[in-house]
Amino acid sequence: MIQQLTIPTPYAVGDVNAFLVKGDALSLFDAGPRTPEALEAIKTGLKEFGYSVKDIEQVILTHHHPDHSGWADGFPNAELYGHEYNNLWLTRDPEFIKFHDQFYMERFKEQGVPEKALGIVGKMKRAADFMAERPLDHLLREGDALPGHPGWTVLETLGHAQSHLSFWNPERHELIGGDLLLEKVSSNPLVEPPKSPEYPRPKTMLQYNASLKRLLELPVAKVFSGHGMPVTDVHKLIEKRLQKQHERAMKVYEMLNDGPHSVFELTVQLFPAAYKRELGLTLSETLGQMDYLMDLSLIVRQTDNQGIHRYEQA
Ligand SMILES: [Zn+2]
Q1: Where in the numbering of this chain does the Metallo-beta-lactamase domain appear (predicted)?
Q2: For the chain, which end, N or C, has fewer CB atoms within 10 Å of the first or last residue's CB respectively?
Q3: From the CA of 301, how far away is ligand 1's center (Å)?
Q4: Measured in angstroms, how far is the CA atom of residue 128 from the centroid of ligand 1?
């Protein structure tokens, strides 16, 4: 049985889910944001099923985002499992944090973000305030059998996060999917730094689409999602999400009718109000569309003598 715990968050997305699964081990998939209200909701939820935080033997993270990883250190008898990328955040790896700022600074300059707006780079790390602070005990990788849960395997489903895993049970046709596919909203393939500077910027929109398409190849009947109710019409919802995203990209393509533009210019046009509040998120969305259109060879990119990237129709 997979039991859903619904947990409040301070974020626009609303509640987040955690899933309690009793196998050979008692595991909690995801751990809410690091707020007192969330911890209260976790305790209340566990109690309803006859457990306390001390009974949890494994905490398994779908990804590192604060609404999912907050209380990963709140279970005194649990071992913590997840993708290696979680550790960069869970340990506040100083080299990674330094690289993180440098990564966004370089990307935002390329995207044509004006000098006076670059101050947000330092604030982007605030997400860590709602994350747990402890390293993983065990790393999970693509294809691993999930410890304590015979029949479940680990899928690496990057895109929404560079730490994103899903858990698949081919006999039950069930997936614990984190934020891969959500009932009510499309999931945002956030631009995130690679694990270290030797790696190129991950093209998160392309990763995300590939992760969704991968589910189309599997007979998934039910996805237990990070937000909202489980998804049952899985393949149909995926087709809808992919179609909508294509339409959004084509709208951006039309905006290039009048010549080349930077990601920042397009973002201001696409999100005239939201870009001021949510610059990081909105730039990320636009850059995703650029990666998508480049991948289809519909647009090309040039770099000017200031290092700013401009995109135009091919
Ligand atoms: Zn989430």
Answers
A1: 15-227
A2: N
A3: 32
A4: 14
